[in-house]
Every structure is written in C-alpha cells, then in structure tokens.
C-alpha cells in the first residue's frame, strides 16, 4: 500500500499497484503497461473521447512508484492510440519490437489486429444479448434493470451482491454497454460537455432507458472517481425528465 500515491485513488488504481507487486514477487523480467489517452469514439453527441484522467496515464504513475531498475525489471509504458485500430497496430508493432527485438513488427501488428477483431465481436455479442434480453423480458412481462458503471464496477469483487438482489426482486438485468448503441441516435440537450468515452456510453444508455416504460436505471459510482458526478447528474436529468425511476449507488472502496 505504501506505493499508492493517495488513499483517495480509485479501486482500479489501487488494484494496479497490487497487481504490479504480485508480478514483482513472481520475479518477472519485464512488465508492459501501455497508456491510453483516448478511447474509441462511441457516441454521436460526444465532443471528445478521453479516457479516465486517472487511469489513462497510470503507467507513468506506476513507473514513479516502483524502482524497476533496482528490481531488475524492464518496464515499458508507451502511449497507444487505441481509438484507431490500424494506426495503433503499427505503433504497437514498433514499440513491441523495440522492447522485445525477437518479436517481429508484423507479428505484433497481426496479433493486435486479431485482438481488435475479437474485441469487436465481443461487443457485438453484448449488444445482441441486450436486445434479446429486452425482447424476452417484454414477452414475459418482466421489468428490466439497467446497471450503468465503469467496467470494473460490474465485477463481482466490487459489487457482486447487486445483480442477484435485482434478480430476486423479479428484474432482468442488463448493462448500459449492451444498450448504448440504441441511444446514440437519440439527440437530447446536454447540461455538461460529453468528453469521456465510457461516460458517453453510459449517457447514451440513459437516453434510451428514459424512453422505456419498463426500465429502471441504476448508476453505480465510486467515491474516489472525480468524473462520475457530472455523468451521474446528466443521466439523472435524462431519466427524471421523462418520469422514469433512477437510482445512484455509491460504492465505498
């Protein structure tokens, strides 16, 4: 814990320190932790597509928190443009080959593009499952609960009791990521600047949920995150203006 710069750091930041310490204890010879300043462009109403301000450059923070030279570990934290697959694959290939000369640039590029393909296929599966769950819920006349959060907040280690509780109450549960694509074409006035890629997906999901009578919308946020209050208020405005049920659950870390 002594390597964590602030006790107010968010859960994934703290988890990163623990993961790095675990790798050190396993006596690895190299650690590759890229930085992602921008995410993928996902919303038509977004004015920017920044990553979380804390985690986007956390590779540099880790570099300043551990003495990797003294530990005999090669540490590499390049910035990668993950929002552009082809460009990023070239940058990835160059950086990986520089760090590990035995790996050919073309092989690293191909591996990255295969990863992008798998990611896009997974995203399509998530969207399809969301639509199927909505259709099946309506066929059975069951209400639907949308859980909106940053990815780590869905993890059972962080909030594992919420989904089972909702299921027990008769709700079918879907994530904001599974319906965000249904809301991106809904144009509504914003009270904030829509500048972060994950928040854009959450707000698109809120726009869609606001038009659905059988939805409730639950926003999971953390005390240690400085970005979520604005997103929370905007989602609340979308839902409340349409008379829909909205809840914000703050999870202490």
TrEMBL record:
Top-level taxon: Eukaryota
Listed InterPro entries: CoA_activase_DUF2229, Dehydratase_Activator_Redct
Domain DUF2229: from-to ranges: 1-179
Protein name: Putative 2-hydroxyglutaryl-CoA dehydratase
Organism: Streblomastix strix
Upper lineage: Eukaryota, Metamonada, Preaxostyla, Oxymonadida, Streblomastigidae
